[in-house]
Amino acid sequence: MIGALKKQWAAHRLKDPRFAMLLQEQNQELVSLDCETTSLNVRDAELLSIGAVKIRGQRILSSESFYVLVRPERKPDAGSVRIHGLRPRDVSDGLAPQDAVTRLLDFIGGRPLVGYYLEYDVAILNKYVQPLTGIKLPNRQIEVSGRYYDYKLRQNPDSNVDLRLATLVDDLRVPALPRHDALNDAITASMLYLALKKRGFG
Known about the structure:
Layout: H1 2-13, E1 30-37, E2 47-56, E3 59-69, H2 78-84, H3 88-91, H4 97-108, E4 113-115, H5 118-133, E5 141-143, H6 144-155, H7 165-172, H8 182-198
Parallel strand pairs: 1-4, 4-5
Antiparallel strand pairs: 1-2, 2-3
């Protein structure tokens, strides 16, 4: 009932009918998502790149992936470049943020979202999504670190769970891809999700 009311409210607030697909949940597929940004502070951060990949059943649809570079208003500083390797010249020809986000919304539609610390990525995206659509991302969210936490506590209720990405990758035995690349990180999150799903925590 609450979900139906939320959808009704979101439909009323929607600025543009072309984004109505966000409210039509598509549970046969998921989208794993990651963003690279200029800062870890949501208020100040700007998008630099967005990566996403679809998941259908037990398969990662790498042929149906999404990746864009985004042109920020302010050039990435040296500290930001050290983390993700995206230099000012790399993003200078990127898409305008609203264009990049519009393309992303077309890609994800009403599919649930998967990610590692997904709350941060969604908060960044909502800075662009809400002015564009009139609503925040309504998609159901699946947090990989939360599923892993539940998995480890089931094994040992008194354990102190290490939620660092490298720990999850090692413990769940998924391939370690180069980090701080939005598409690689989205694929990594999708592999972690499927590994947890096989263990009964999907």
